[in-house]
Amino acid sequence: MKLTTMTQVTLDGVAQGNGGASEEDRRNGFVRGGWAPGAGDDETRAFITRTYQRADAFLFGRRTYDLFAGAWGPMRTHPIGAALNAAPKYVASTTLVDPEWSGTTVLSGDVAAAVRELKAKPGGELQVHGSGTLTRWLLENDLVDEMTLIVVPVILGQGARLFPENGPDIALAPVESRVDSKGVTIQTYRPAGRPRYATA
Fold first, then answer.
1. Can you give the residue range of the structural domain that contains 120?
2. pLDDT tens-digit map of 178-187
3. Quick check: helix, strand or coil at residue 83?
4. For 60-90, how does the pLDDT look when each residue is reduced to its tens digit (9 = 90+)?
5. Helix 42-53 and helix 79-86, axial crossing angle in degrees, nearest 10
């Protein structure tokens, strides 16, 4: 399977607290949550729904898994909820022992090896949604095949960013880019090794 990620971010790179509830993620004094719902147009929402529907399996970090299990676990008639409930779900966690969301497998121990085993299985996509910490770790370990960023035209000025101030450098090859009628951009990239830097 191809490992793909999809993350909503602001123009200043914040990925924290994008969901419908402003109280969703208050870590480190964050108070500007709920910035993504309603930001995109119908075409963007349809794109997001189609993305979920083509997944063969989903991979989550613990925090996003808990949020999704609470929000989407009971929503079996919504197209995204139906896709999530029907597909196998994997969560990278050292603390989750007995997941209640049906179809969930906990990956602990050597997570990199477990993810490589999942990628070696036949199928289309192993998708990661949200899960900023996990996405960064997957990139650092060369496990991401394709990355989609949904950039919402807002500057928050606070919050956890998808990419840290200090981290690995990664060149990206563009796959697709579009902008919707509300100014939300969808940018898809493939990791392409390290960037080239100008020399004196």
1. 2-191
2. 999 999 999 9
3. helix
4. 999 899 989 998 988 888 999 999 999 999 9
5. 20
